[in-house]
Amino acid sequence: MESDPRVLVVADADDQLGSLCEGLDRLGWRTVTARSLDAALLASSDLPVDAAVVDLNVIGEGALGRLRDSAAPRYLSILGIGAASQAGAADCDLVFSAYPHPLQMAPRLEQLTRAAVAEEEFMLRQATFAAHGVELPEPDTGETPLQILTAGAADRRFLALSNALTAAGAEAVAAPTPYTAFDYLHERAFDAAVLWGDRSHAPALSIAAGMRRNTRLYHIPLTLYLREETQPDLADLFGRGFADVAAAATPEEETAERVLALARNHRRRQALRRALDAVRSCDLMDAETGLFSRDLFAAHLARIAKGARARNRPLSVCVLRVPANEAIAAARQGGWLERAMPQIGAMVSRLVRVEDTAARLSPETFALALPATDHAAARTTAERIAAVIACTAFDAGRDRSPFVVELDVGVAELRGEETPASLLERASADLPRS
């Protein structure tokens, strides 16, 4: 599957298009180019593309609907390039006024793709629970305006952005310092945050780092709005947790729309998570952690594997196991490790993406089913979760130092017609030997 393209680019040939495709290819978003709608329809129906980047100048009315239909049963996310007033712009999941840098486009493609996968997973999970006699409620996004935190010192352009967000129907809350930003973040729920980048970006980086270390704030999408025309290290900024970086020359209205697109996606994903969490207390789930039980996970993994093959998407399974070492052995005495397992399970539940399925296979072993995720990305996800849990100190009793749990990780990606049981066995076999 390594040679399969992930992005369909529909545009006329030009230097800008070439550099975009080369950049996306280097970032792992392999591209295929179509010069016309007919060529795009053939490509999207024959190839397992996750998303399309479409120059709105080369397509006509109704073209994007046909393009999306050609990819069924996969949902094809579409990122448009052009003016928001152009034909087809309303049918796009997101619109950029000009071709962004590949480092800018890659995380937005990831966000759009994961949103589509989350919707697919919700339908699969509805079917799994229905087969066991449990109704999964529809997601409820609520009726309150989108809540946007804008953090940074007052500035004409930053105020203009707040006004653009308000004009679009969102509620913007201003925080002049990182301290006030965290006060707001701990007091109320936000759908997205915009951080004002000064010359060093230090305040913004401080807020981003703090949010990445907090499991409750981890998933809130962050946008860095640059104060000056500079050439920032985009790879470093995205690595620090930013979902988008808006250049100083970007119009406030476009930046606002990009922030709101992130916010809408975040609210929808939170609604999906709440709908999925609504069944955590049912008898099908693990009583202590609220995660999938072993039997329910096996049933759902079979459904996910079938869906992955139908949509020509990858699927990976991770197994996370409490290691066998002296510190853990000591924590087992008196039941301290047993007392910690519900908290560890709750952390796993909060750290996985909405579309991922987390289960408890045994008292000290967890499993993750990661749809639309290859082996390398799955290992990164599992190791990130293990690293966050390893930062937590658990009580070991009176006069004893707290202990930490550094989970072992095993990963396997679905192969051909492999059975779900075999996939899970390979992931378990990939665990370090005790």
Net shape: globular
Mean pLDDT: 88
Helix content: 40-55%
Largest sheet: 5 strands, parallel
List the strand order in the largest sheet.
Answer: 2-1-3-4-5
In CATH, the architecture of the largest domain is 2-Layer Sandwich
Unreliable sequence segments? none
Task: Please describe what this structure looks like.
- This protein has three domains: 7-101, 3-Layer(aba) Sandwich (Rossmann fold), CATH 3.40.50; 147-276, 3-Layer(aba) Sandwich (Rossmann fold), CATH 3.40.50; 294-429, Reverse transcriptase/Diguanylate cyclase domain (Alpha-Beta Plaits).
- It is globular, with a radius of gyration of 23 Å.
- 44% of the residues lie in helices and 16% in strands.
- Helix 1 (15-26) crosses helix 4, helix 4 (102-131) runs parallel beside helix 9 and helix 4 packs across helix 10 (294-311).
- Helix 1 (15-26) links the parallel strand 1 (7-10) and strand 2.
- By secondary structure, it is of the alpha/beta class.
- The longest helix is centred in the N-terminal third of the chain and has 30 residues, at 102-131.
Summary keywords:
single chain; 434 residues; alpha/beta; Rossmann fold; Alpha-Beta Plaits; 3 domains; five-stranded parallel β-sheet; 14 strands; 44% helix; globular
Topology:
Elements: E1 7-10, H1 15-26, E2 31-34, H2 37-46, E3 51-55, H3 63-70, E4 77-81, E5 94-96, H4 102-131, E6 147-151, H5 156-167, E7 171-175, H6 178-187, E8 192-197, H7 202-212, E9 222-226, H8 234-239, E10 244-246, H9 252-277, H10 294-311, E11 315-321, H11 326-332, H12 336-351, E12 357-362, E13 365-371, H13 375-390, E14 408-413, H14 420-429
Parallel strand pairs: 1-2, 1-3, 3-4, 4-5, 6-7, 6-8, 8-9, 9-10
Antiparallel strand pairs: 11-13, 11-14, 12-13
Helix pairs in contact: 1-4, 2-3, 4-9, 4-10, 5-9
